Amino acid sequence: MKPGIRSLVCLLGPRRLTPPSEWPARARGLVLLCAATAIGLPAQTFTTLYSFDTTHGANPEAGLVQARDGDFYGTTYNGGAHGAGALFRITPSGTLTTLYSFCAQTNCNDGKNPAAGIVEVSNGDFYGTTRGGGANGSYGTVFQITPSGSLTTLYSFCAQSGCTDGAYPYAGLVQGTDGNFYGTTEGGGVHGDSGTVFQITPSGTLTTLYSFCARPNCLDGELPTGGLVQAADGNFYGTTRHGGASGNSGTVFQITPSGTLTTLCSFCAVINCTAGAGANPYAGLAEAASGEFYGTTAGGGVESDYGTVFQVTPSGTLTTLLSFDGTDGAYPFAGLAGATDGNFYGTTQFGGSNAEGTVFQITPGGTLTTLHSFDGTDGEAPYAVLVQATSGDFYGTTEYGGANNAGVVFSMSAGLGPFIETTPTAGQTGAAIEILGTGLTGATSVVFNGTSAVFKVAASSLIKTTVPAGATSGTVQVVTPGATLSSNQPFQVLP
Q: Which of 136, 299, 426, 475 is most buried, by the most CB atoms less than 10 A from its CB?
């Protein structure tokens, strides 16, 4: 198990929790006013869909991905047939199937303890990482897995002397517009054990793009645990949880696909720090339609030490939108999910009315609403980012709690309607595009910003089409017998 806080002290008694490694020392012995009342929205509906039982997995630290078949796929850090984590599929109604149990091979050469989610590619396969295991000791892997559960280990880290190629990938992968995957490792690299940014091809050829702590005092950051996001400018953006110019509290960085890194800003852990309040961002960033990025820090704050929500521009201007105070949540280890209503949704691992963590909504301007406070029976200690399904509802996981205290999968309705999602989100005229949605059977038209397209309904959750001649960038719409569904983000027609 990872070292860290083992209990949370509050007026209701101790609670056993296990956050990620190297939890800031100031977090130990946290006392929360558990009797505080959370603010709620009347339209929400929370449902615990599945409680893990160790046999089928335990302690999911990662979020879910909705696949082309409409089901959700995810990982658990522990449990499974060999006790080293599992990969599962779960339907929107809560029927779970374990697809693969890690450490099925001698010495766990297939990997163990996946801490991140997976990403689906155009052929329906998934790619992901494990934090441990592999052919070179226990430094982690990159894997490919089919929807039926056939796993291939593409790369084992620490294949180079001194782990200069990286070690311990804590975050998942993002597929770039070039078809390759990009990610981070928490350790390894040419400057000691400070972490890396890497590129890997779908067939498994890995290139280390950047090794952190390349500048004196790690001013460029160290120990990236969050994933990357590729922005509209083609560059990738991410965070490091340590390093930087303001007291080793972490950074936000930009890196080009070829590996040129720019540190955009450094966080400041000092209470009442006027610039960069917050410390130790564990998660990646979410890009808004306006081009700014939004994220969380697990600690720090303007008037407290319970973490923050922040906004940062591509040029590096950092604004602290909210400092948690414990009653509205504490220590948001997960990142934010941008939703179709223009707001962001996230979780805190602690805090809320029961000190077991929360689900919240926050506007781009920083107004926060607590949507749900966990009580242990319905889940405890949510650590992963939420995903908004094409039904409009949100799905997520908790690391602990539930019927067996091994974590849960949950859904939550916040009153948002269904939508469609295009994959990819950009393409030239004639390019093949898939449209994901709910209830697409019987669709009568597909329109790219006013231009009609030829299409085929492949399943109730999938339409296949091509970018029509004359199409321009903008919203994609699908007309079904029951509704007109719009894309959750504009489609960009490339020249």
A: 299
pTM: 0.90
Arithmetic mean of pLDDT, 211-218: 95
β partners of residue 79: 84
User: What gap in Å lies between CA 91 and CA 388, rounded to an integer?
Assistant: 14
Q: Which CATH superfamily is domain 45-413 in?
A: YVTN repeat-like/Quinoprotein amine dehydrogenase (2.130.10.10)
Question: What distance lies between CA 152 and its chain's CA centroid?
Answer: 23
CB atoms within 10 A of CB 273: 19
Three-state DSSP class for residue 163: helix
| Nearest one of 470, 455, 424 to 479, comparing CA atoms | 455
Tokens representing residue 389 in the block: 């399904």
Return the percent helix, strand and coil in the chain, to nearest 5.
0, 40, 55
251-362-32 Cα angle (round to 5): 80
Structure tokens at 224: 């990236």
Q: Which secondary-structure segment (H or E) carries 391?
A: none
CATH number, domain 421-493: 2.60.40.10
Three-state DSSP class for residue 27: helix
Number of H helices, E strands in the chain: 0, 41
Amino acid (one-letter) located at 262: T
Pairing state of beta strands 236-240 and 251-255? antiparallel
Nearest-5° Cα angle at 17, 11 to 20? 135
Among residues 338, 354, 344, 289, the alpha carbon closest in space to that of 322 is found at: 344
- Residue 147 CB: number of other CB atoms within 10 A? 17
Reported as a single tens digit per residue, the pLDDT across 375-395 is 999 999 999 999 999 999 999
Residue owning tokens 């091994």: 406
pLDDT(202) > 60: yes
Any idea which residue has 């975050």 for tokens?
Answer: 171
CA distance linking residue 482 with residue 67, whole number of Å: 22
Distances (CA, A) of 225 to 169, 201, 238, 484: 8, 21, 9, 39
| 185 within 8 A of 173, measured Cβ to Cβ | no
Closest-CA residue to 366 (of 284, 305, 292, 298): 292
3-state secondary structure of 65: strand
| pLDDT score at 40 | 43
Other C-beta atoms closer than 10 Å to the C-beta of 16 total 12
Residue 218 has φ and ψ, to the nearest 5°, of 55, 40
Tell how strand 181-185 and strand 196-200 pair up: antiparallel
Looking at residue 421, its pLDDT comes to 96
Domain limits, the chain? 45-413, 421-493
Tokens 């509205």, located at residue: 328
